[in-house]
Amino acid sequence: FVGIPLYFVDLQDDLDDFGFEDYGPDCDSMRITAFLDIPGQDNLTPLARLEKYAFSDNVFNRQIIARGLLDVFRDFSNNEEDFLTVMEIVVRLSEDAEPTVRTELMEQIPPIAIFLQESRPKFPTAFFEYLMPIVVRYLTDVNNQVRKAGQEALLILLEQDLVAQSDIENKVCPILLDLSAPDSDDEYKVEAVNIICKMASMLSRTTVEHMLLPRFCELCSDGKLFQVRKICAANFGDICNAVGQEATERLLIPKFFELCSDSVWGMRKACAECFMAVSYTTSPEVRRSKLSPLFISLISDTCRWVRQAAFQSLGPFISTFANPSSAGLYIREDGTLSIRPPAQDVNSNPCQPSNNITVMPSTEVHTKLSEDLNKNSLEQSSDCCASPGEDASALCQGDKAAAGGSGGTKESSVPGLGSALPPAQDVFNTFLYWRPPLPDISHDLELLQFKADKHNDGCSGPCNNCVASNEIKKVLESLQEHIDDPDVQGETVTVKLCFLSAGFLAFTKHLTDIIPQPLLDQYLSMTDPARAQTVDTEIAKHCAYSLPGVALTLGRQNWHCLKDTYETLASDVQWKVRRTLAFSIHELAVILGDQLTAADLVPIFNGFLKDLDEVRIGVLKHLYDFLKLLHADKRREYLYQLQEFVVTDNSRNWRFRYELAEQLILILELYNPNDVYDYLRHIALTLCSDKVSEVRWISFKLVGDVKFYANSANALGLNFINELVVRFRHCSKWVGRQAFAFICQAVVEEECMPVDQFVEHLLPSLLSLASDPVPNVRVLLAKALRQTLLEKAYFKSVGNPHLEAAEETILALQSDRDQDVSFFATIKLKQDNMDNITIEKQ
Fold first, then answer.
1. DSSP character for 359?
2. SS (HEC) of 70-109
3. pLDDT(22) > 50
4. Are 789 and 806 in contact (CB under 8 A)?
5. Which regions are annotated as HEAT repeats (predicted)?
6. Which of 31, 368, 558, 611 has the smallest set of CB atoms within 10 Å of its CB?
7. Are 676 and 712 in contact (CB under 8 A)?
8. Which DSSP string corresponds to 163-225?
């Protein structure tokens, strides 16, 4: 607690009259109730003096007692009789006529309850008998400030789990139900519904469902006060989460529909803002069949503010349809998204078809169809078989001779394929007479139809039409050698059109099975410039913010649906939009996988590297996370570009370089020793010479780690040691020599190199700093020797030839003329104390 100096400003005269004259304004550490301990001022015991001031006619005295109740309990809690007396005084003080006294007292109830729980074994009895009734009573106090203090205290007690279940059900809930009754005062009703919504997440599901949910449903339809309905709408998601799926779908969803169609636009806006929380609690069927059309009505609302809130919630709402496991991902316990281990990866399914498909030139009609279906070839799906769109795009690449799509469709079949082929021509034709006979494919088509029907009857899951798809391609391959024949070309076109038609239908059905098409269409329209004029100027930023969630929902097999939108956002004129993408590109890379990342994200990533510093910092903060997802050869290309991060638009932006040093510490493990020595070493040494000390000190640790990776190659390690000695030990500036002592300490602490190599190559140069003319250098040397080197087992061994030299140096430093040097050389400080002693970094 703060002392009473605040009151000395205006009320010094009152303090002098009541025993405070011995304490001046500079006494910041005094207890608020320290005057109770002053002996001989009125021949009263501290307890009697407490009672005297608690019921004084002076309001200020009573305020001081109320504010200092925690100190009072600490003083009198050891004696049971005194403790009960204090409790009775508190109860009487809670009935004070002055609202400020009651407010001060209520603000002390939570810390008092926490103190009593920790210090008294009989806490429940004392709290429930004396203090809890005060909290309940203040919920109906006539003064607004007292009620608010009581509500805040109740929430804190519930959050700390200090209120018994019986008190919640028998005391708290009945009061709130009375205050929120239809005939209750408007002000009390608004406060009651607010506290009901806030405490719902802290109570058991049974209590909320049986006692509070019926009243909440009534309040959602309150026709008298729109403030009540607005509070219900704003907290609707919390209530749904508190009662669970069954009660939400049975009781709350109908009320949610009413609020979403409320005549007051503020209600509809509040519903749009909490839509994701409501959707998260419902089943997929309700989410798709009921909530999706409802959301479309909000996103098309006549009020701009409702549409704005709906578009901001569109991406989060779509993300509730997500199933990470279908994309080969899983969510860790800490909430981060990660790639599923290979042993669990569904891509390892042997049902996965081959990617090598030879196709023939196709005509203009189905080339146009494929372009409409998918402008970019789809990557391999993580399901058992790839998506049908992949076959379509692979088979329709215009004049290309080969394509990399994967075979197999998920749900399509090719009924009536034989009837789609043109009948044989029986009329004599010279061309038909002289050409080589055509292969008979009727048997193949019958076999295809039979296998397709059989597969549809007996197979379920994502591999529904692998056989049908593969058989169609076999038919096409059998016709390839006769491609110059115009009739064969006609048959080929027909077969392909049948295949594309079936694949397109299956693809459309597969995509709409994930999310409703209207939701995706609305999301893709968020990059339309017209939206910024009619809805929200920052709508593109909201689209960029939620794009990883939408991509996770659709899965990597449907990335083509978002690719154009992502590229549009990446080239947006607003740097805030590009910055948002830069901060999340590493997460999107996890979702898409290495192939799509290399093809579609790497070019955008490269563009962000050359963007403004506000955008580059997003890439830089997660540089390691992105690079580790790339193949080694692709990752190695960025060795040349890491140097560019050292240069910033504003040289004063030192935090940018600090972040670079932190990322490089992680990135070192991604490259081999030669690359670390050739490229990253230069960056680390450059950062060590930075003008800002914070950047230099984190860079010294980076240099130590570089030494560890370079040490695996002996020649590189020795070269780097020599460079450190020349650059830092013999530096003309004392900062460089101080850095050498710190680097040596970091090398030993982190065990970046064997101790025997350290004492051979670095220790002599380190000990020579004992004669340095600058005390700050000698201080670092003393710390490095006393705290690190001499603590290693190598130096503690008897007969160590290097121990004597180190001890001689320590003895010399202990008698140093500078007090700080002798202090650190003499006293072996604990690490905790060392953290509190800072040396000025210049």
1. -
2. HHHHHHHCCCHHHHHHHHHHHHHHCCCCCHHHHHHHHHHH
3. no
4. yes
5. 212-251, 762-785
6. 368
7. no
8. S-HHHIIIIIHHHHHHHTSTTS-HHHHHHHHHHHHHHGGGS-HHHIIIIIHHHHHHHHT-SS-
Reading the block at residue 802, the tokens are 């290097």
Q: How far apart are CA 377 and CA 404, in angstroms?
A: 8
Judge contact between 687 and 649, C-beta under 8 A.
Answer: no
Query: Backbone dihedral region of 116: left (phi > 0), alpha (psi from -120 to 50 degrees) or beta?
Result: alpha
Average of pLDDT values for 783-792?
A: 84
**Mind listing the pLDDT tens digit for each residue in 114-153?**
888 888 766 667 788 889 999 999 999 999 999 999 999 9
Which tokens hold the place of 555?
A: 């899965």
DSSP per residue over 711-722, as a string?
A: TTSHHHHHHHHH
Picking from 5-19, 123-137, 367-381, 618-632, which range would have the lowest pLDDT averaged per residue? 367-381
Rounded to whole angstroms, the Cα distance separating 330 from 336 reads 9
Q: Identify which of 552, 565, 625 has the alpha carbon closest to the alpha carbon of residue 592.
A: 552
**Alpha-carbon span 23 to 15, nearest angstrom:** 9
For residue 338, what are the β-bridge partners? 330
Report d(CA 659, CA 664) in Å as an integer.
9
CB under 8 Å to 596, separation ≥6 — which residues?
Answer: 379, 556, 559
> What DSSP string runs through 316-351?
HHHHTT--GGGGTEEE-TTS-EEEPPGGG-GGG-TT
Q: Which of 317, 322, 320 has its CA nearest to residue 522?
A: 317
Secondary structure (3-state) at 135: helix
Contact at 8 Å (CB) between 469 and 410? Answer: no
Cβ atoms of 564 and 553 within 8 Å: the answer is no
Residue 268: closest CA among 316, 226, 321 = 226
Backbone angles phi, psi at 143, to 5 degrees: -90, 135
DSSP 599: I
Burial class (CB in 10 A: 0-12, 13-18, 19+), 271: buried
**What is the SS3 assignment for 485-522?**
CHHHHHHHHHHHHHHHHHHHHHHHHHHHHHCCHHHHHH
pLDDT digits (tens, 9 = 90+) for 713-744: 567 778 888 888 888 898 888 988 998 998 88
pTM of the model: 0.70
- Phi, psi at 195, each rounded to 5°: -70, -35
Residue 244: which region, alpha, beta or left (left: phi > 0; alpha: psi -120 to 50)?
left
DSSP letter for 645, please. Answer: G
Whether the CB-CB separation of 153 and 69 falls below 8 Å is answered with: no
Query: What confidence score (pLDDT) does residue 644 get?
Result: 85
What does the alpha-carbon distance between residue 424 and residue 447 come to, in Å, rounded to a whole number?
Answer: 19
* Helix, strand, coil shares, percent, the chain, to 5: 70, 0, 30
CA distance 265 to 269: 6
Do 276 and 316 form a contact (C-beta atoms < 8 A)?
A: yes
DSSP code of residue 465: B
Q: Where are the alpha helices (DSSP H) in 300-339?
A: 304-319
Instruction: Please state, in angstroms and rounded to a whole number, the distance separating the CA atoms of residues 358 and 352.
Output: 17
Cβ of 595: how many Cβ atoms within 10 Å?
13
Q: How many CA atoms lie within 13 A of 833 on its CB side?
A: 7
| 105-114 burial code (b ≥16 CB/10 A, e <16) | bbbbbbebbb
* Neighbouring C-beta atoms of residue 194, cutoff 10 Å: 18
Specify the DSSP element, H or E, that contains 45.
none
Q: Of 69-73, 134-138, 827-831, which one has max mean pLDDT?
A: 134-138
- For the stretch 217-251, pLDDT in tens is 999 998 888 899 999 999 999 999 999 999 999 99
C-alpha span between 564 and 600 (Å, rounded): 10
Place of tokens 């498909």: 357
Spatial distance between the Cα atoms of 705 and 663, rounded to a whole number of angstroms: 12
Could you tell me which residues are beta bridge partners of residue 331? 337
